[in-house]
Amino acid sequence: xxxxxxxxxxxxxxxxxxxxxxxxxxxxxxxxxxxxxxxxxxxxxxxxxxxxxxxxxxxxxxxxxxxxxxxxxxxxxxxxxxxxxxxxxxxxxxxxxxxxxxxxxxxxxxxxxxxxxxxxxxxxxxxxxxxxxxxxxxxxxxxxxxxxxxxxxxxxxxxxxxxxxxxxxxxxxxxxxxxxxxxxxxxxxxxxxxxxxxxxxxxxxxxxxxxxxxxxxxxxxxxxxxxxxxxxxxxxxxxxxxxxxxxxxxxxxxxxxxxxxxxxxxxxxxxxxxxxxxxxxxxxxxxxxxxxxxxxxxxxxxxxxxxxxxxxxxxxxxxxxxxxxxxxxxxxxxxxxxxxxxxxxxxxxxxxxxxxxxxxxxxxxxxxxxxxxxxxxxxxxxxxxxxxxxxxxxxxxxxxxxxxxxxxxxxxxxxxxxxxxxxxxxxxxxxxxxxxxxxxxxxxxxxxxxxxxxxxxxxxxxxxxxxxxxxxxxxxxxxxxxxxxxxxxxxxxxxxxxxxxxxxxxxxxxxxxxxxxxxxxxxxxxxxxxxxxxxxxxxxxxxxxxxxxxxxxxxxxxxxxxxxxxxxxxxxxxxxxxxxxxxxxxxxxxxxxxxxxxxxxxxxxxxxxxxxxxxxxxxxxxxxxxxxxxxxxxxxxxxxxxxxxxxxxxxxxxxxxxxxxxxxxxxxxxxxxxxxxxxxxxxxxxxxxxxxxxxxxxxx
Length: 700
Ligand code: T1G
Hints:
Monomer. By secondary structure, the chain is an alpha/beta fold. The protein contains 31 helices and 19 strands. An 8-stranded mixed β-sheet has the order 12-11-10-13-14-15-16-17, sandwiched between helices. A 6-stranded mixed β-sheet has the order 1-2-3-4-6-9, sandwiched between helices. The chain has a 3-stranded mixed β-sheet with strand order 5-7-8. α1 packs parallel to α2, α10 runs antiparallel to α11 and α24 (545-552) crosses α25. The structure holds (2S,3S)-3-hydroxy-2-methylbutanoyl-COA. (2S,3S)-3-hydroxy-2-methylbutanoyl-COA is lined by residues 22-23, 25, 58, 61-66, 79, 100, 102-104, 107, 126-127, 130, 134-136, 138, 278, 281.
């Protein structure tokens, strides 16, 4: 039990220290004593100023999200009442900020007259990422401190700004390299002795007045920011609330902000996004890999293969500050690969998201070689070679020979059996899969494939490295395609037949984009390259009448200017192609398929429901430990719309009973296995428990 709030004195200045591990979130058990302490200090004539600080690793990181949906969230004193108490002070108040002043934490700090910070502090209002908006005055106070346009960017993106930017924009008064609280006390004492009037943030109008003069500029900025948040309600409400801070009196804007907050927090989108917040943290908690299992040290990584995947994986490590030795078979391939990596960094520099010196620093951590022996000092080696078992086994044979004792050997395979790869070495307990998603330096998901013999500390090391290279890890078991690609196969199984039976590529893709996917399966195929699937089918002795015909005509997608769609010179925008529709009709005739009108519901039922069904089978087999792990895979690896919480969370919203009924209908009509409802899905539907109530498994 900690003292959540302690009050100490430095002469005539009071220091109020909050202590609510792990991130000082504003739980009710913290709010109550804090409000009581502040009221006492406000009326204590011996106190001439107050500094608000936090113990532990960070200033207040926000409201306590675990209280949402419970009476505690709004129990008095709520956060808005706390801020009113702060703003009723006639003496200077200051927040001394270290770590991350996020959400309600930043709102609390803006209830103070002043804010100071340490150089590494971060400031943000990430509520939009939880499907809500700042609900304690953030949308009306932040514009008064840094201007509505800047505030709009912070609130709509949900991304933090650093201390330097906060100082430059006027969010903080000073940055102190050391002795943050002592310097804050000095600052407050000077203010208490000054004749200058104390102006609460709510009463600062200068930044608002100038914005009022240029509302069209504000609207243009808002429209630009909203482009990236298709289908989500919260970003739009964030814009409305910041606009209100400019066009409405403070109290009216504050009341309206509250109305928006209540509307959003009770909606499915926010429930979905809050589910994902905790699901991502849950996914990093792996059975048998508790805090007692220490990760191995990874000072240097080895990457085998400098192609698209190998180069992207190498960049992920370099971005995390981990030195890399990258190996190719020939100097020419090595030079081409490293040149591609430099080119990718140049694009980021041109975009302004990377500085030249940061690029140079990262490339300076890279060593290239064509000699396996040079991998001898690597602590972790990831192969990204051709997706063929024989090739993988040859590579691991070489690694077994040259890698030092204790080095972790990882395969980036998308489908193949990691146990079989591990068995081809003398050190199977040091082997696992690290499945990155293309482009590997961009996509957040990392499927950590746990082999039967993978040692716990090897998994702990993979989880630790994932955090260092800013990936979102999910531990999965061994099966064809693990979690993501196995479910993708189920989602794709009906695509050819849907075209033959009457749908067009653009009609199917529209069902997906209307659902919130960034693009539909056919546009995605054209982007990735249809020849990949074609080669995969041929290796498995499978055929796809339309997909094969397109590839036989050299229509591989965007890279050839034609695939399911046409891509006019240099454009990446898919345009429907009458030739493709004629090809589909011809193939349907050849197969004696009578084409018919196909509804959007049918398309969804024959693609997304089998995907959920496969997810249930994956849970049954223990390939994923939790349904929320499956959600995290799809959000971070395939662009599943965050407002729907991932396939398993969405399925519960959709109704598991309805999904079972429709799967049974299509199974009866077609006899196809992909529609046979998984027993676990039927049980979750009949017991009405949903997936989340099922016992938590351990990824096999
Ligand atoms: N409430 C409850 N628990 C939280 C929490 C929060 N706000 N933030 C983190 N945790 C838990 C988290 O689940 C994990 O628990 C542990 O703390 C460590 O977190 C009115 C309504 C601060 C940058 O959205 O961004 O304020 O797994 O693993 O990587 O307008 O946590 O250990 O049991 O993430 O060092 C707005 C969310 C809330 C910030 C630290 N604030 N948190 O990252 O640790 S809404 C946020 C973060 C709000 C107001 C509105 C990060 C972090 P466990 P962690 P980390």
